[in-house]
Amino acid sequence: MIITEFVKSAGQDTLPTYMLGQLRPALTPEVNAISTALLALTVLILIVFVFITKKRA
């Protein structure tokens, strides 16, 4: 993404830069909180999975 910012021409939008530009105004504290909660849930599920599979081995 960062490389795209440096190598694209002026006035040219690539798909990643366009998508990021569309997302930035829409990011609110609620979106950040939901994202954090989903990340924490995913990490918790992975930790539980690791412990379950260690006990079987």
**What is the oligomer described by this structure?**
single chain
Span of the ends, CA to CA: 41 Å
Number of strands: 0
Structural class: mainly alpha
Write down the Rg.
19 Å
Total of helices: 3
Uncertain stretches of 5 or more adjacent residues: none
For the biggest sheet, the summary is:
none
Indicate the mean pLDDT: 81
Helix content: over 70%
Shape: elongated
N-to-C order of helices and strands: HHH
Percent strand equals under 5%
Whole-number count of domains: 1
Describe the protein.
It contains three helices and no strands. With 57 residues, the chain is mostly helical. It has one domain. It is elongated, with a radius of gyration of 19 Å.
Give a concise summary.
The protein is an all-alpha fold and 57 residues long. The chain has helices at residues 2-7, 15-23, 29-56.
Could you give the topology of this structure?
Blueprint: H1 2-7, H2 15-23, H3 29-56
List its traits.
57 residues; 3 helices; 75% helix; 0% strand
